[in-house]
Write a structure and sequence with these properties.
single chain, about 220 residues, alpha+beta, 4-stranded antiparallel sheet, 3-stranded antiparallel sheet, 13 strands
Amino acid sequence: MKSYVTFYRSLSSVSRLTIFLSIFFLAACNSIEPLTDVDGHFTDARDGKTYAYVNIGTQTWMAENMRYNLTDSTGWWCYNAAEGNCDTYGRLYNWAYAMKVCPAGWHLPSDAEWKKLEIFAGMQASDADSLDWRISGAVGIALKARKGWNSGGTGENTVRFSAIPSGIYEDNTYSFIGDLTSFWSSSYTDETHAWGRGLIYHAEGVYRWKYTKTSGFSVRCVKN
């Protein structure tokens, strides 16, 4: 199955060089866009952390990545093992932990729920079922926050999803903070892979593929 290494290699050589060079700069230098245009907030009763949420079409989505600290430390990561990155970007979870990290009243979105979001944001329904980059409707631009992405990014955040470039943890390596983000879905394809989504700073599309469940990705929850 295609990993994020393959995803990276699928980019042009110029794009790969840009990503490689940007790894040497602190993504923290790019300020994250404040969440001011939201529909409300809720508090996770487990730890008292508060999250913003937005209504997108008929769905209600978190406008922030989950930060919940599970008691078992073997299935989640702070980027570069820095707690401050968890505060800013949320935690990176493997799929098993992503499946149980959302608070009561919320859940990890299915692949179908991701498609519903993408179609509302402008993606053609036929494109939503495709693999790799789906570029119709420039939905990646609609989902990405306007600030925080390397090289200025391309986000316009028109649906207020406010995706930020939280990086990933894969093959025992932290990679691409400031450049890209990936999110889990609850839909799995086999014992070792599940559907996910990817966004990168320079692209207008949304990447869809079956990812290895041991990878560390971000989690957005959708309301029940």
